[in-house]
Amino acid sequence: MSEVDVLAFVKARIDECEREGRAYGFWLARLKRTNLITVLLPVTLSMIAGAAILGDLLGTSTTTVAGIAALLGGLLTAVHKGLKCEAHQAECLRLQSAYCGFKTRYEALLVASRDARIDRLAEVDQQLAQLRESVQATVPDWCRARSRNRDIEQRDMHLVA
After folding, report:
1. Contact by Cβ (8 Å): 71, 48
2. Does the structure show a pLDDT above 90 at 51?
């Protein structure tokens, strides 16, 4: 492989790692909002149920409110646990961080000597392959498409400027 080919390959890997990391970032942002519904809302509903039960003790009939709030809170918690949201988010965070790290490793190859670059490239590519083999959480296609579109927008902005 010629030096020009190696540099082009390294730059392609940098772009790929940046896109993948950004795609996981988009997905994590969506999951964060979903967590508000499946984690914080059940806590709020439990508080409402508790307040309603306390109201019953004080002579105000709010049994229906307590029951509905407790049921909804339990259902949302079950959905969160059933979908294994915590493990999924932790894996997405790991992958986002790993792709950021790989981007940095590939960028370091751009300033390495030619011989060191070729040796180190094989090493880093092997590590990237291992990461890909270990992936336990993927992002939806729309996250990758949005990440690719951001690349296109940035290139278009550079062409205009």
Report:
1. no
2. no
N-to-C CA span, the chain: 34
Q: What was the pLDDT predicted at 8?
A: 94
Annotate the chain with DSSP letters as a single string.
--HHHHHHHHHHHHHHHHHHHHHHHHHHHHHHHHHIIIIIHHHHHHHHHHHHHHHHHTT---HHHHHHHHHHHHHHHHHHHHTTHHHHHHHHHHHHHHHHHHHHHHHHHHHS-HHHHHHHHHHHHHHHHHHHHH------HHHHHHHHHHHHHHHHHHHH-
| Plot region of 76 (φ>0 → left; ψ -120 to 50 → alpha; else → beta) | alpha
- Give dist(CA 154, CA 61) in Å, integer: 60
**Cβ–Cβ under 8 Å, residues 12 and 144:** no
Distance CA 87, CA 92 (A): 9
Q: Identify residue 157 by its one-letter amino acid code.
A: M
CA distance 93 to 109: 25
Cα–Cα distance between 118 and 115 in angstroms, integer?
5
pTM: 0.77
Mean pLDDT of 132-154: 90
